[in-house]
Design goal:
Blueprint: E1 3-6, H1 12-16, H2 26-52, H3 65-73, H4 75-78, H5 82-98, E2 105-107, E3 113-121, E4 124-128, H6 137-150, E5 154-159, H7 169-181, E6 187-192, H8 195-204, E7 214-216, H9 221-230, E8 235-236, E9 244-249, H10 255-266, E10 273-278, H11 281-297, H12 301-311, E11 313-316, H13 320-330, E12 334-338, H14 343-346, E13 354-357, H15 363-368, E14 394-402, H16 404-420, H17 424-441
Parallel strand pairs: 1-11, 4-5, 4-7, 5-6, 7-8, 9-10, 9-12, 10-11, 12-13
Antiparallel strand pairs: 2-3, 3-14
Helix pairs in contact: 2-8, 2-9, 3-7, 5-6, 5-7, 6-7, 8-9, 10-11, 16-17
Length: 442
C-alpha cells in the first residue's frame, strides 16, 4: 500500500528520496563494447543469437526498404487502424517541434567586422528503440521526428529482433509515419540489434552499421551504461533513470482519476515512482484506497505494485503553494497540475520535464499524441536539462571576419588582454600584422 506522509511530520529525506537502479553492469558492458569494436558485425550476430534467440545462418542486420514496408503493413493485422493513429500522432509531434527550428545570424554592426553563427544538422542520428514485449513505436516518433526536422541526413535505428529475426511491425510503421510526416527528410534505416552491443555499433560503426554523431532513446540498465561509456566518442541525449510522475492536486480531483494517472507510470518499471502532493488529507486517503482497487485489476500489477509500495508516496502539504515548492524540489519527469486554474500556477513551476495542465490532461496524452516530446529528464535532472528537441540534432558554428583596418583598431586592446594572461604569443600574432603592414609601407 502506498505511504501517506504529512510534510511537516516526517524527515525531508523520506519526502525527497527516490528509487534508484543500483545494478553495476559497467564491466560487462565494457567487454561488450570492446568486442563490437574489434569484431563488428560478427559480434552483433553472435549477441543476437545469444540474447534474442535468432538463427545466425543467413541473418541480415539491416531491414531492406521492402522488408520495412512489408513489416509495417503487418501492423494492421493485429492492430487495425493503428497506422492512421501513428500518422495523426506524428503530425502533432511535427507541428510542435517545427516551432523549435533555429536559424543562424550575421552581425555587421561594427565597421569592417562581420560575425555570425551557422546552425547545421548532425549528419547521422542513432536511435535506440526497445523491442520484444517492450516495443515502443511512440519512441520512434518522438525521437526521429525532431531529428528529421533538424535536417539529419540519416536516422540509424537499432532495435532487438524477435527470435525469428523479425522486428515489431509497429516500430516499422512508426518509422514510415515519421518519414512521411516530414517531407523531404533524411533516410531512415532499421537494424536488428539491441542491448549494449547496439549502442557500441552506433558509436564506433561496423561493416553494416555506420557510426553516428549522437545516440538517443531509452533502454535498460545495459543500454544506459553503454551510452555512458561511449559518451565523448559520440554525443548522447541523457542517462535516463526510472520513469516518474508527480501529481499536484487540490481536494476537488476525482481520486479514481488521480490513482489511474499515478499507476500509468508505475506500470513502466518496478523502479518507477508515482507521487501525489495535495493539500487534502481526504483526497490522500481516497487515492490510496482507489489505488488498491485499481492495482488488483491492472494487467501489469506485478510491476506496478512494487513500484507503488517501494517508491510511491502521497505527501500532504498545508496548501497548494507549498505543494508547488515540494514539486520544484523533486523536479519530476512528468508533472500534472490537477487544479481549476493551472495557468495561474504555471509560472511557479521551475523544475519539471513536462507539465500537464488541468484535470483533463493525463500524462499518457504526452506519451503518445499531444505533440511535446516524451523523452524527458529524470532523477531530478530537470533542474538543469531539457526535453529532447530539434536542438539536440543540430550543432552551431561561429565565424568572424575583420578587415585590416578593423583589426588594427582593436590590436592594442587584444594585445593588452593577452599580456594580462601571460600569453605574449597571442599578442604577437595580432601586432605582427601591424608591423608587417608598416614595413610594407616604407
Amino acid at each position: 500500500m502506498i505511504k501517506i506522509l504529512k510534510y511537516d511530520e516526517v524527515a525531508a529525506e523520506e519526502i525527497f528520496a527516490r528509487g534508484e537502479e543500483t545494478a553495476d553492469v559497467s564491466a560487462v558492458v565494457a567487454e561488450i563494447i570492446d568486442d563490437v569494436r574489434k569484431n563488428g558485425d560478427a559480434a552483433l550476430v553472435r549477441y543476437a543469437a545469444k540474447f534474442d534467440g535468432i538463427d545466425p545462418e543467413g541473418f541480415e542486420l539491416e531491414l531492406s526498404e521492402d522488408e520495412m514496408k512489408a513489416t509495417a503493413a503487418m501492423v494492421e493485422e493485429t492492430s487495425p487502424g493503428l497506422t492512421a493513429v501513428l500518422e495523426r500522432a506524428a503530425a502533432n509531434i511535427a507541428e510542435f517541434h517545427s516551432r523549435q527550428v533555429r536559424n543562424g545570424f550575421m552581425l555587421n554592426s561594427r565597421s569592417g567586422v562581420v560575425m555570425g553563427q551557422k546552425v547545421m544538422p548532425l549528419e547521422r542520428a542513432g536511435l535506440y528503440v526497445p523491442g520484444g514485449t517492450a516495443a515502443y513505436p511512440s519512441t520512434v516518433l518522438m525521437d526521429s521526428i525532431p531529428a528529421l526536422i533538424a535536417g539529419c541526413s540519416e536516422i540509424i535505428m537499432v532495435t532487438p529482433p524477435n527470435s525469428d529475426g523479425s522486428v515489431s511491425p509497429a516500430i516499422a510503421a512508426a518509422a514510415l509515419a515519421a518519414h512521411k510526416t516530414v517531407p523531404g527528410s533524411g533516410r531512415v534505416r532499421i537494424f536488428r540489434t539491441g542491448g549494449a552491443q547496439a549502442v557500441a555499433a552506433l558509436a564506433y560503426g561496423t561493416e553494416s552499421i555506420p557510426g553516428v554523431d549522437k545516440i538517443v532513446g531509452p533502454g535498460n540498465v545495459f543500454v544506459a551504461e553503454a551510452k555512458r561509456q561511449v559518451f565523448g566518442k559520440v554525443a548522447i541525449d541523457m542517462i535516463a533513470g526510472p520513469s516518474e510522475i508527480l501529481v499536484v492536486s487540490d481536494g476537488k480531483s476525482d481520486p479514481a482519476v488521480v490513482a489511474a494517472d499515478m499507476l500509468s507510470q508505475a506500470e513502466h518499471d518496478k523502479n518507477a515512482s508515482a507521487v501525489l502532493v495535495t493539500d487534502s488529507m481526504e483526497l490522500a486517503g481516497a487515492v490510496r484506497d482507489e489505488m488498491e482497487k485499481q492495482l488488483s485489476r491492472l494487467e501489469r500489477e506485478a510491476i506496478a505494485r512494487p513500484s507503488i509500495e517501494n517508491n510511491g508516496k502521497i505527501i500532504v502539504a498545508d496548501d497548494i503553494r507549498k505543494a508547488i515548492d515540494i514539486a520544484n524540489r523533486i523536479a519530476p519527469e512528468h508533472l500534472e497540475l490537477c487544479v481549476d486554474d493551472p495557468f495561474d500556477l504555471l509560472d511557479s513551476i521551475k523544475n519539471a520535464g513536462s507539465v500537464f495542465l488541468g484535470r483533463n490532461c493525463p500524462e499518457a496524452l504526452g506519451d503518445y499524441f499531444a505533440g511535446p516530446n516524451h523523452t524527458l529528464p529524470t532523477s531530478g535532472t530537470a533542474r538543469f536539462s531539457s526535453p529532447l528537441s530539434v536542438d539536440d540534432f543540430v550543432r552551431k558554428m561561429q565565424y568572424t571576419y575583420y578587415t585590416a583596418d578593423a583589426l588594427d583598431a582593436a590590436a592594442d586592446d587584444i594585445a593588452a588582454f593577452a599580456r594580462s594572461e601571460g600569453l605574449t604569443g597571442h599578442a604577437k600574432s595580432v601586432l605582427v600584422r601591424r608591423e608587417r603592414k608598416a614595413e610594407a609601407g616604407k
